[in-house]
Amino acid sequence: MNHRLPLTLFRTLFAVLLLLTAGISQAQDLPKGSSVPGGIAVIPIPATNGDNDNDSPHVFYRGHQVMLINHDSEEYAVIGIPLSARPGTQTLTIKRGNDKQTVKFKIKDKHYRTQRLTIKDKRKVNPTAEDMDRIIREKKRIDAALAYWSDSPPATLQLVPPVEGRRSDSFGSRRIFNGQPRRPHSGMDISASEGTPIHAPAAGTVINTGDYFFTGNCVFIDHGQGLVTMYGHMSEIDVKEGQMVRTGDLLGKVGMTGRVTGPHLHWGVSLNDARIDPALLLVEE
Length: 285
What we know:
Elements: H1 7-21, E1 40-44, E2 58-61, E3 64-65, E4 67-71, E5 74-80, E6 88-96, E7 99-107, E8 114-117, H2 129-146, E9 166-167, E10 174-177, E11 180-184, E12 188-191, E13 197-199, E14 204-212, E15 216-224, E16 227-237, E17 244-245, E18 250-254, E19 264-271, E20 274-276
């Protein structure tokens, strides 16, 4: 017998639980660490014994500020590791007032599969010069959204599935379109019928919407401290830039705009401007 709750009921109960527990403590549960390219490193921040004890730390990795979470009266850096990161020793920089220190941590290698896809619209594989002008303009907006930082901490690091459907394991896969290699896949694809509702997996603020060459109709949500989620290939967008959303709020509907082989949601998660596997933050209903 299947005892799983329907996704819509699970999403509602999860949102109620967040409201009931909000304000009890600013401490949060830590995500499961996975120190690999496309993963998350959870690193304890050492306490100080000097004059800067009262200074809040600011932590940086590869030039980007990273999230700090208080857990059991300890501070942890929650770091997104980009797919381009090479295995080996990595360095965090911790700044407190005028003081600066470094912390080392290691990441391990991970091999992702190769995925071969056939795209009927050949311009989506080999864009024209005019297309490239558009792509370059759009990339600036997309990059700015994915690198967005706000000081407020996220309400939660446990994300509810944004849409009902079959989730692929394509994150990080080396993609070959019409026989031509392209960059690794930076999100999770969730297959669903066109028009299936897409819901916010956590509270946040809509920071960008648009119709982009490769990803079609898109929405970007800032959840706080470098955690940004992205929703691509939508048939319909039902939110506006600057709009605050709660867990479960309608964002739009599944479509097949942009470069696609069929209707699905491209769900991306960016942490300190590194694309990470959404499954690492996903709450299983």
